[in-house]
Write a structure and sequence with these properties.
alpha/beta, about 325 residues, TIM Barrel, 2 domains, single chain, two-stranded antiparallel sheet, 13 strands
Amino acid sequence: MAQKIINKISEPFILEGNETFIGASIGITLYPDDASDADDLIRNADMAMYRAKDAGRNDYRFFTFTMNEQVFERMQLEKDMRAGLERNEFFLEYQPIVDTVNEQTVHAEALVRWQHPEHGLIPPDRFISLAEESGLINQLGWWVLENACAQAKQWSLNGYPVGISVNLSSRQIKAGLSSEKIVTMLNEVGLEPTLLTLEITEGLLLDDTEETLLWLNTIKQTGVKLSVDDFGTGFSSLSYLKRFPVNIIKIDKGFVQDVTHDHDDATLVKAIIGLAESFNINVVAEGVETEGQLKFLRQHNCDMIQGFYYSRPLAAENLLGYLKQGAAA
């Protein structure tokens, strides 16, 4: 019955002369097995519906008691995250981004980590999505941006003016993160705008709204660079490379890891590099781990690489040592 409802709702209809499509996600709970009163039944069905949405939408899910446990865990993790931001439990590591020609570190990507007092190191894939859903990404994202820029200034004072790359959530932009606020912060820490690169996702560009274009252009006017992260993993509309002021695209590691033995991945990576070159956009290949991958990327004029081949993410003081070693070499 649930599938019949979804199928019926998904049929196109005409709205003010336009063909329109909608979908439905359905959560199902059963009386008396799951609950004995209306309030609990509604709450259980709501939980199951959100699980259907998480699974890709236009689907249905039955309530299970493990959902209760998972919801409690997420609520507790969100509570811990709020407290963790107050208690300075988050810290940054930095992964070098290396020029493929002279093998010098030209940027470092700031990566946020969470050292939980009870559960130890919590991986980003557990808390970043929760931060986005809860709205905590605005506070966490600003903390990352401010501290990464301050750290880049310290490297510069030590004689190593390395650029810093920081991931930016589209939710931060929609919440009002302005170019003026970023410039004010850069002035306060004393970092040149040209040393900051903001990494955004393809999803933001695919929105293709005038508001997005205006925001991107105001950022570019400050001198801050823009990078498209995990390029090729979304439903790319290549026209946005012409429309939007992008300086760098990063090829997702999923394509890079098999370039030496997968013809399709090799062809795709070569095409991305060629496309970027035609638009005068620099390319970073992520997830480089082997000599063969590096050789392939050099042969096809990839500008920069990032990955374990050169270095894992490092603490700030260890990255400074890495920079000194590179300069000596």
